[in-house]
Every structure is written in C-alpha cells, then in structure tokens.
Amino acid sequence: MREHELVLEELGVSHRQVRTPSDLVGIDGIIIPGGESSVIDKLSRIFEVREPLISAIAGGLPVLGTCAGLILLSNSVIGAIEGQQTFGGLDVAVERNAFGGQVESFETAIDMPVIGGASVKAAFIRAPLIRDVRECEVIATLTNGDIVGVRSGNCVGISFHPELVGESRVHAWWLDTVVAGAQR
Ligand code: GLN
Q1: pLDDT for the residue numbered 1
Q2: pLDDT tens digits for 71-93?
C-alpha cells in the first residue's frame, strides 16, 4: 500500500487510503494492492466496502489490481480458500500462488507493449498467473509467454509489483490512459 502511495507521490497525484464506503466518494480511480487476497476479501465485507466497490467498478471506476489485487478483480480463482470471493471485473481465471511459495519470489523484466521504451521491472511475490483470458486484452507477458497482465475497459490487473522495484511507468500509463480516459 505505502509503495503505491510513494509512486503516486512521485507522479504528483493526490491519493487517500480507502477503508470505508465513504472513502470511495469522489475518487477518480482505485489501486487494489498486493497482500493476501482472502484477507482483503474478508476485510472488504467487514468494512462494507465490497458492495459499493463492485458497483463503482461496474459503473466505470478505473481500477488497477496488483497481485492479490488482480485476484480480487478476476471473475474466477483457481486455488481459492473456502468461501473466498472476488469483486470481479476481469473475465479471466487466475491461479493463486502459481509460481510456488515465498522462496520462489523473483524479479524480472516484463514485456509490456502498451508502455513504450525498455521492458518493465517487476517483482513476483507468491504471484498468481492468468490462465484463461476471455473478454480481456493481454497487456503483459513473461518471456515464456505466460500472461501476467490484462485489461478490460476500466479494469487493469497485473500479477506483479512494479511499485516494489522503483518502476513507475505502469502507474503512469494507467493514470494517463485508463484514469484520464474515464474522467467525466
Ligand atoms: N499469494 C497471495 C494471494 O493469493 C498474493 C501475493 C501478493 O499479493 N504478493 O492472495
């Protein structure tokens, strides 16, 4: 969470943390961070953010989900814990912990043609993989072709963490393209 805030500060964008439904009022976009998707799911229900957030996303609120955030945006989850729900928005199946556990975490460079210039730096931490892409555009792949980023309209989900490795171009692209494009 803090790392996303630092990227937004670097890009000169004001921000606030969303914990309750009233925090959603008036925002131009939302980033769902990494962490543990089942815990974020439970907290969203306890704090009653789940339903208003689902409505806002369905209404076109720009959203960027990283890692657990991608899982929460996916319509179906392989390896979900019992009762785990998502907000949905991306018509994909994601496989949780597809690379193994914490020790299998790694940094690499991602091919992301929507972002010009050099390949994108990315950290993968107990990351999910995108398995079954239906109505989405693939925006990021590993060199072996595995899909690690998708977009469907206002929803963007990536398996990895650019914010942990000093990479601000994914956020800049999302702000310039998805958030700016949606502003009414
Ligand atoms: N493995 C976590 C999950 O399934 C995601 C890890 C992360 O966000 N870095 O929710």
Answers
A1: 72
A2: 999 999 999 999 999 999 999 99
Residue 62 has pLDDT above 90, yes or no: yes
What DSSP line would sit under 55-75, residue for residue?
HHHHTT--EEEETHHHHHHEE
Q: Is residue 34 assigned to a domain?
A: yes
Atom of ligand 1 nearest to the CA of 34: 8
Range of the domain at 64: 2-177
Total domain count, the chain:
1
- Asked if residue 183 belongs to a domain, the reply is no
Indicate whether 182 belongs to any domain.
Answer: no
Annotated catalytic residue, options 4, 136, 155, 163? 163
Q: What's the CA-to-centroid distance between 66 and ligand 1, angstroms?
A: 9
CB distance 56 to ligand 1 below 6 Å: no
pLDDT at 184 over 60: no
Where are the strands (E) in 33-127, listed by range?
A: 63-66, 74-78, 90-95, 106-110, 120-124
CATH of the domain at 31: 3.40.50.880
pLDDT tier at 32, thresholds 50, 70, 90: very high
Residue 136 known to be catalytic: no
Q: What pTM value is reported for the model? A: 0.96
Strand partners, 155: 63, 152
Q: Under DSSP, is residue 87 helix (H, G, I), strand (E, B) or coil?
A: coil
In 7-49 the beta strands, taken as DSSP E runs, fall at 30-32
